[in-house]
Amino acid sequence: MNLYDIIFYLFAAITIVSAFIVVNAKNIVYAAFSLLFTFFGVSGLYVLLGADFIAIVQVMVYIGGILVLLLFGVMLTHKITSVDIKAGSVQTIPAVIIIGIFAALLIGLMYSTHWAVNPAEIPVTTTKSLGKTLVTEYVLIFELLGILLLVAMIGAATIARRDGDK
Amino acid sequence: MDFSSLYDSLALIKPEIIISVTLVLIVVLDLIYDKNKKLVPYLALLGLIVSGIYILSDIANEGFAFKMSATSNKFGLLALDSFGSYFKLLIILTSVLIVFFAKHSVEIENTGKRQGEFYTLLFGMILGMMFMVSASDLIMIYVSMELLSFSSYVLAGFIKLRDRNSEASLKYIIFGGVASGVMLFGISLIYGLTGTTNLYSINAALQSGNINLIVLGFSLLLIVAGIGYKISAVPFHFWTPDVYEGAPISITAFLSVASKAAGFAILIRFIKTAFVTNVDGSGNWLLVPVFDWKTLISVFAILTMTLGNFAALWQDNLKRMLAYSSIAHAGYLLLGVVVFSQIGIEAILIYFAIYMLMNLGSFYIVMLIADKTGSEDIHDYSGLGYVTPFLGVSFAVFLVSLTGLPPTAGFIGKLYLFIALIDAKMTTLAVIAVLNSVVSLYYYIRVLKHMFLTKPNGEVKEIKLSTANVVYVIVLLIPVLVLGIYFSPLVNFAESCLAFLSF
């Protein structure tokens, strides 16, 4: 086991453990803070994969933006820390069995497969080539995502607005 | 970057560009006229009609748009062909009808200033569907599907009067999120196996062999789950009844026709492009022997038909009943996929055109009655057939057509599906489908029994219809009757729209 593997398992462990806490925490503030570690772990995994741009975006958008907003929402909501959020689990045993089978299947598949691999070359920086691909080959998808965001924004505003103010 | 190829690509997607421009114009118009929303539907109609004209005039234009320059192959993100154009026309036609539908609907009228947003989101759905039907790259499929889903999540909960409206939206988004996550996982496995996301390159990779069949099968199951969610095939149908019941009726009608059409188009294109090596002289598809599509789709079809029809038997809410009926119809349509031949696809194209007319017609009448009586319950339909004979009779025609009895168009749709099945020597499936149609007769006729034969408790108020309402019903009613007798134009048109872009 070399250094790379150790770092990988470290980040993976951070991600999984904190994600587990997010789902199971009874207190919503604890859940929100654990989410911070989940995002951090994921961005670490991106760095290990050589996806520097995505790692930075992960930190900036998810940790810097979404999570801070989430925490603001939690903190500003009156007495939310004392509210019992519904974190109870129903039908734990069937769920565990199904997830166990699913996980075993996935792990089995992962080890038994010949994946299509390209020769490894860790790029110095991906930002330039990523930007270039986005406006040449994948320009349609880039534009479509723009419309997707517009629709999502309008949709969010529609949902948030109370129906009384016509 | 070669700019001439970009211009070529843009020329191929004119209808989609017009839809996007209309979407933006609706937002602008919505901002300029803050108080008056009367113009918005007309702008929407204009955009749809112009886009429809471009689809019709370019129906013979074929080609790949947005080609991959780096990989030096000629395949692109989109494959424009007449199969896709047929579905685009169907989506545009449905959208035009839905715009009128929403204009006549009291619940949309009551949202007042929010109507601008309604049409913006509707166009988001339309755009997503139009890209979906011609997508030939897994990333493109995913992104267009998300655009469709995002807009429909919001629209499902657009009316916020009752709890079940929000319930519809929430259920839809949770199930939808899981389905698209599952599908994305399948896509990532396929990318890991073949090293490409383009369907044409995946086909080449599959034919070259060296693919782990177990992993491939697993990833395909995941992708089929994502698509099966869109077409509400059993066992991915859980959301359908609740969402269809809680959403505004115009959106329910739109989801049950257009969204389903787009889902079927992408399912067929996915199988045809990635797994078919050759089409033989009589139009049968020769599949790469890597995955047992026939068994999988047959099982889905049988489950979907049977569950849809049997669950519909117990429904008292008309919207819920029609939701289960639309699940059952998805089952019939899957039968057209399972024969894997050009004749099966032709049957699907014919069935969808007819299904659009009769399903929109039924939902429209349910909407008219719900707007006046405030109820979708079957017991409140008692005696309505005598008070408003026009509604009663036209509802009868639509329901008989949904059952698939002559002389209505529904019979022709089912006939072509069964011919395709018999042609492929799948008699068992055909028998199951016929038995299912018999079951469906019960719950369709039960509505008519209530309208004409059940004695109402108390006075039944007459439902007053405006001229526009009557015209709308007649516009849907006449084709349903005429296509039951004189169907060759539709069949010929469907036959001319069977071209898939090949290598």
Q: In words, what does this structure look like?
A:
The complex is a heterodimer of chains A (166) and B (503). Chain A is mainly alpha-helical and 166 residues long. Chain A has helices at residues 3-24, 28-48, 52-76, 92-112, 127-135, 139-160. In chain A, helix 1 packs antiparallel against helix 2. The longest helix of chain A has 25 residues, at 52-76. In chain A, 11% of the residues are buried. Chain B has 21 helices and four strands. Chain B has helices at 3-12, 14-32, 39-57, 82-104, 106-109, 115-134, 138-156, 163-194, 199-207, 213-230, 239-246, 249-275, 293-312, 318-338, 342-373, 384-387, 389-403, 409-423, 427-452, 467-482, 488-496; strands at 63-67, 76-80, 276-279, 285-287. In chain B, the strands form two sheets. In chain B, strands 1-2 form a two-stranded antiparallel ribbon. Chain B has a two-stranded antiparallel sheet with strand order 3-4. In chain B, helix 11 (239-246) packs antiparallel against helix 12 (249-275). Chain B starts with a helix and ends in a 7-residue tail after the last helix. Chains A and B meet through helix 4 and helix 6 of A and helix 2, helix 6, helix 7, helix 8 and helix 10 of B.
Number of domains of chain A: 2
Taken in chain order, the helices and strands of chain A follow as: HHHHHH
| Approximate helicity band of chain B | over 70%
What is the fold-level CATH name, i.e. the topology of the largest domain in chain A? Answer: Four Helix Bundle (Hemerythrin (Met), subunit A)
Instruction: Spell out the helices and strands of chain B N to C.
Output: HHHEEHHHHHHHHHEEHHHHHHHHH
Beta-strand percentage range of chain A: under 5%
Shape of chain A: globular
| Radius of gyration of chain B, taken over Cα atoms and rounded to an integer in Å | 22 Å
Unreliable segments of chain A (pLDDT under 50, ≥5 consecutive)?
Answer: none
The CATH architecture of the largest domain in chain A can be given as Up-down Bundle
CATH hierarchy, class of the largest domain in chain A: Mainly Alpha
- Poorly predicted regions of chain B are none
For the secondary structure, the number of strands of chain A is 0
Largest sheet of chain A: none
**How many beta-strand elements of chain B?**
4
Largest sheet of chain B: 2 strands, antiparallel
Assembly classification? heterodimer
